[in-house]
Amino acid sequence: MTTPISKTFAQLKADGRMAFMPFITAGDPDIETTATLIRELAAQDVDLIEIGFPYSDPIADGPVIQASYTRALERKLHVDDIFACVQSVTESATGKLPDLVAMVAYAIVLRVGPETFVAKAKAAGFVGFIIPDLPADEAEEMTQIVRGAGLDLIQLIAPTTTRERTAKILELASGFLYCISIAGTTGVRDDLPPELYEQLEWLKTQTNVPLAVGFGVSRPEQVEPLRKLADGVIVGSAIVRAAEKSPAAMGELAAAMTAAAHGG
């Protein structure tokens, strides 16, 4: 199935570029700022934007992202506020926006209703979903709903994922595969582990789904060693921390990361 995300990665591959995907928290510090940040990231030519739906009990988020979720939730942010914000940005955009991917807990999806959530997200402008607390062996129903909408349910693979579980994950994988670089929570780190490169090399022999590396990537110089093994990089905590300073500071980091990913 051809999806917006698969088209994006195919075009980047044809151009000899890696994808850059920053993460932002919806509603931090308010929903108006979220719209500003999406537009700023689009202006910096990022390829995809991962938008986090704040949740009181996140699975693997480190202190920077947890704090951003807390700030958003303290303002009584509602799921429909996020959809309305994203829809306002997509409807007012004068050019092509980056692909928008929802990072959302399955508890939130269930509360809304899976089919309703996907329909509302698609109408708002989201083209993919990352649901970190929905394991692959329980994801078939959600996968069918998302695929039925012509969108992607992104699967995650950790350093500790067994070869047996990886096979199941690859059966469902579409859009791209989110490769967690380290065991633990999100956050800025100085170096990526050697085991990551070995895992990426092996995954390249197992699937044609693009591989994007997240957790611990924070600086442009960390991109180059991944170039022949990964198809994209995801930056969360460093982007959120820069956004705390100002949209301009976040845009500056995003521009540098985009240039590194695009080979500029």
Describe the structure.
The chain is of the alpha/beta class and 264 residues long. It is globular. Strand 6, helix 9 and strand 7 form a beta-alpha-beta unit. It has eleven helices and eight strands. Helix content is 46%, strand content 15%.
Please give a handful of descriptors for the protein shown.
globular; 8-stranded parallel barrel; alpha/beta; 264 residues; 11 helices; 15% strand
Let me know the number of strands. Answer: 8
Strand-pairing-aware structural class: alpha/beta
Largest sheet: 8 strands, parallel, barrel
Sketch the topology as an H/E string, one letter per element. HEHEHHEHHEHEHEHEEHH
Contiguous low-pLDDT stretches (5 residues minimum) are 184-189
Radius of gyration: 17 Å
Task: Summarize model confidence as the mean pLDDT.
Answer: 92
Biggest sheet strand order reads 1-2-3-4-5-6-7-8
Query: What is the general shape?
Result: globular
Secondary structure: helix percent:
40-55%
Please give the alpha-carbon distance between the first and last residues: 31 Å
- What portion of the residues fall into strands of 2 or more residues? 15-25%
| Separate helix tally | 11
